[in-house]
Protein 1
Amino acid sequence: MKQQEYIQLEEKYGAHNYKPLNVVLSRGQGVWVWDTDGKKYLDCLSAYSAVNQGHCHPRIMHAMIEQSRRLTLTSRAFRNDQLGLFYKELCELTRSHKVLPMNSGAEAVETVIKTVRKWGYQVKGVPEDHAEIIVCADNFHGRTITIVGFSTDPGSREGFGPFTPGFTIIPFGDAEALEAAVKPNTVGFMAEPVQGEAGVIIPPAGYLQKVRKICTQKNIMLILDEIQTGLGRTGKLLAEEHEGIEADLTLIGKALSGGFYPVSAVLSNSEVLGVLKPGEHGSTFGGNPLACAVARAAIKVLTEENLIENAEKTGAYFLDELKKIKNPSVREVRGLGLMIGMEFHSEAGGARQYSEKLMESGILCKETHDNIIRFAPPLVISKKEIDWALERIEPIIREK
Ligand SMILES: *Cc1c(COP(=O)(O)O)cnc(C)c1O
């Protein structure tokens, strides 16, 4: 079949809730993907950081195949021989006390909202049904009704109300705004350490430390959504480490399975997850043995193959080289590890045209909003592969 035929099938039979680039991929390995005509591309999106370990990583693939031969799903009505090991290895790696496994990122977010509300009522003493959670403008935490209800992106929320009450929105990167927003019924503050979908927005230095202090002083839970920033993407295992702090609750997902399978988790540093009792929360697939085996392999690959250090080193190089590209329509190039955003002046026209030109020359990335391109290749990328990318990116950005 021709690429155009695959595209027509998607257009005809699928809901149009995405506007993908017109490239039909059929194979991937490491940082590379191939389309149905055999053309090779360097993946600079990594499925929004879900394939940090690179496409079809052989060790994760092996774990998936082996486990799927033995046992895939038991439900949590029974125990399985992978879950406990997954908990232990993930807790040791992240220095957490407890884990609650789910599937998608949005489910981890929903789980944390339920958990901190319950903590608020049972431990903090907030009157029932009055808990408030503070979140940031321009956040991205997923797509459920509750989550889009506290989004500030009109496209994400308009037409989907009525929404869940109990959320307060403050500007991102502004610790004073947090301090002022905390009320007696506030139970938590949730933010991304670096806002990914908003366009790689890095808060001012010291922000997370200030936020940590405020949350401790006011007795509210600090929730960091590291679904995108976590697991090596920013050059640290968790982005919170850049400021030497620990959140009370951390959300991870995406790269937790290296792109093989949806696996997410709520990690808790204190005993807050202990407020959930049997029957109060769950998921048919959450914590299944296949997910656990895949996630165990995915986190081993991250650490044993030094992907976190590689993200720090190659990310710094990539960022420096991208900054050297001269083009007056580039407003800023910023990044942390291999999470890099190139922002254009809005009058320079859409970033979409750059994504399309980059695709033609063999670089896959996706604009976020109209004027920002994110470069976030798998963390297995080498300096040589970054040079390959730069040779193609430079003439496209430089022209115009
Ligand atoms: C992708 C993402 C989510 C949602 O994850 P899904 O698996 O798509 O539900 C939540 N938070 C952040 C920061 C994300 O990047």
Protein 2
Amino acid sequence: MKELFLADMMTIPKDDPVAFTFFTGYMAMFAASVFFFFERQSVSDKWKTSLLVSGLITMIAAVHYYYMRDYYAATGQNPTALRYIDWTLTVPLMCVEFYLLTKAAGAKVSLLWKLIAASVLMLVAGYIGEAFVPLNADGTAAAGATNHSVMWGVISTIGYIYILYTAWFGEVKALGDSSGNPQVIKGIKILAWFVLVGWAIYPIGYMCMPGGWLNTGLGWTSSNVDLFYNIADAINKIGFGLVIYSVAKSDSATAKA
Ligand SMILES: *C/C=C(C)/C=C/C=C(C)/C=C/C1=C(C)CCCC1(C)C
């Protein structure tokens, strides 16, 4: 049994792009964590917590990818529960990054809680939408599947739009501007683009599940759910961290000069 499992893991990546992204995703998250943890020492004190949080985000993801990768290799199914446990920990930590970036300009903890509340709404609704979609015994969409996924998808989008709005036009944007720090202003702008473009990949994956619009409309299957999620995670978790890293590096250099 154990040998068979290992053999499966060795053969799947070459003909299965989803498995491939689970394996590369795992290694990329792992390497990014090592990078962020080690680079902490190269930035000034006020940026060390931000880099620690970047490393925690990719490290939490790496551990979940380790398990999701094996779950997928062994069953060929979407590791939905593990996926949402990962996001429930990492998305609030991304909100912490926004808070830490704007803290020097006077961000209050209430900003952090509002962003976290919006992410919880987004993720709980998304989980109900995916995990409890009505399915037939053979895994195809049962009656009501489309209604279920659309309803919970819309509720989830409310949380997403709140975060998007806060980053582009709301408190995060205003605090960034009032910081008077060009590096912070630029960093917030790039992160806002990540939330607009990078995070928008997730609803595309969501709509590939049985009953989802891209499933019924274009015939995209549930393995595409993980393909989109894996690509989006690599872009967003590592990319977010690198933006923070570059803000921290350039601001530390300015402070020294
Ligand atoms: C590291 C993980 C991240 C940044 C995850 C982000 C997840 C989303 C932005 C998910 C959004 C969803 C919608 C906006 C509607 C459909 C359901 C979701 C949960 C896929």
